[in-house]
Amino acid sequence: MSIGPTAQAGPQLRTRAEGLASVLPPLLVQAEHLASTVLLGAHGRRRAGMGDEFWQYRPIAQGDEAREIDWRRSAKSDVHFIRQKEWQAAQSVVIWVDGSRSMSYTGDRDRATKSDRARLLALALSVLLVRAGERIGLANLGTPPRSGQVQLVRLAEALTGELSQEDYGIPQTPGLPAHARAVFLSDFMGDMDAVEAALAKAADRGVHGMLFQILDPVEETFPFDGRTIFESMGGTVSHETLKAGELKDRYLERLAGRKDRLDRLARLSGWLYQCHHTGDSAQSALLWLYAALERSG
């Protein structure tokens, strides 16, 4: 029996993809190294769902169906019990990495930019999740989450692209799978109403996740004095002052208010919030992200 062009396309595509994966982008090499420093646990387990292994009994609650009742266990009590099993299916995790000009800032030429840190953490987290059998997607790509090494290469190539021309980023939520988990990495220096709207859309789809704010240490300390010109990274906003030091208290107050709003928005949506500084360890940030995915599941 002859094999037509359509039947051959699948194996040929896989061969080309595996060949591409054999030449790892530098960012993926860095991410693999960072991920190797984190102890990989049994991610995705010990959650109730459609699995084969028994996990626990729990009392029936509003919304449960009668067919879920374990009648043998319930016969021993005046309360009806549900027999829960461990979740064994792969979960979908979608990551949004802010690609705006604001993320290109660093207060020290020897320190990573906010964008560099965000991209590294996003890919290192993806490496850990793929190793755990999860499906990973990048909101910036607009494609469904997938598993496997080839998907990591796709993400690495997307994350090494040029930054957008926008001054500040807005979280992208179209195509978020229902009941998936999400990670938003950004400095969140843009429109806060847009962040709130994105979280509302995610919550409507039963999506839980994390707001992970990345700031440069200079943005936390505001070490400016005298004549200073403040300009957005995209060059669309500029402000000159002769007494920069007098702006410090107002700036720090507004920054604290922004961080507090992010924290409140996250808690109201069932998400988690964390602020990370590029001067701190990328390993500690990755550990927090990885552990937080369990808490947000």
Largest sheet: 5 strands, parallel
Radius of gyration: 23 Å
Mean of residue pLDDT values: 82
Domains (count): 2
Placed side by side, the strands forming the largest sheet appear as: 4-3-5-6-9
* Helicity range: 25-40%
Structural class: alpha/beta
User: Which oligomeric form is depicted?
Assistant: single chain
Written overview of the protein:
The chain has two domains: 54-85, no CATH class; 92-295, Rossmann fold. It has a five-stranded parallel beta sheet, with helices on both faces. The protein has helices spanning 5-22, 26-36, 71-74, 114-131, 149-159, 192-204, 217-221, 248-268, 282-295, and strands at 54-59, 81-85, 92-97, 135-138, 181-186, 208-215, 228-231, 238-241, 272-277. The radius of gyration is 23 Å and the shape is globular. Helix 1 (5-22) crosses helix 5 (149-159). Residues 1-9 and 41-52 have low confidence and may be disordered. The protein is of the alpha/beta class and 297 residues long. It contains nine helices and nine strands.
Characteristic key phrases:
297 residues; alpha/beta; Rossmann fold; 2 domains; two-stranded antiparallel ribbon; 9 helices; 16% strand; DUF58 domain-containing protein; DUF58
